């Protein structure tokens, strides 16, 4: 069942197909409404969000609306030898920590991507730092990061 609160976008490592979208445990067509929503949300956070973390293969930006764009860099490279990060769009106000962790674990087990030691734990801990804050809490955190650089 599709989950609009967690959407993954990645490229195929052989560069032979369109981007691959995975939503709530199932693959979805790159021209489906779910994939288009995932792209729209990711573009919005990329443009309007603030950096929450950028270290050790984990990059994340978030917006006070509750959306986060999380990029994880797996060990595997594409056929051209380039990094092929996984882009995950998350709704921090509607996704629980356990749902987030379960989705991350599903990525490693069903999508054939692996990460350097500690990458998934770092991502889970940093994302969890914003979960459960509610809209007002995210707004305050957003302002502090944007204007004071405080994380």
Task: Describe how the helices and strands are arranged.
Layout: E1 6-10, E2 20-23, E3 26-28, H1 33-48, E4 50-55, E5 58-62, E6 67-72, E7 86-91, H2 97-110, H3 119-128, H4 134-148
Antiparallel strand pairs: 1-2, 1-7, 2-3, 4-5, 5-6, 6-7
Helix pairs in contact: 2-3
Structure description:
Helices cover 36% and strands 23% of the residues. With 151 residues, the chain is of the alpha+beta class. It has one domain. Helix 2 (97-110) runs antiparallel to helix 3 (119-128). The longest helix is centred in the first third of the chain and has 16 residues, at 33-48. The radius of gyration is 15 Å and the shape is globular.
The tally of helices reads 4
Mean pLDDT: 83
Oligomer: single chain
Strand runs, count: 7
| Backbone structural class | alpha+beta
- Strand residue content: 15-25%
Total tally of structural domains = 1
How would you describe this structure in keywords?
single chain; 151 residues; alpha+beta; 7-stranded antiparallel beta sheet
Summarize this, please?
The chain is α+β, with helices and mostly antiparallel strands and 151 residues long. Helix content is 36%, strand content 23%. A hairpin with a 4-residue loop joins strand 5 (58-62) and strand 6.
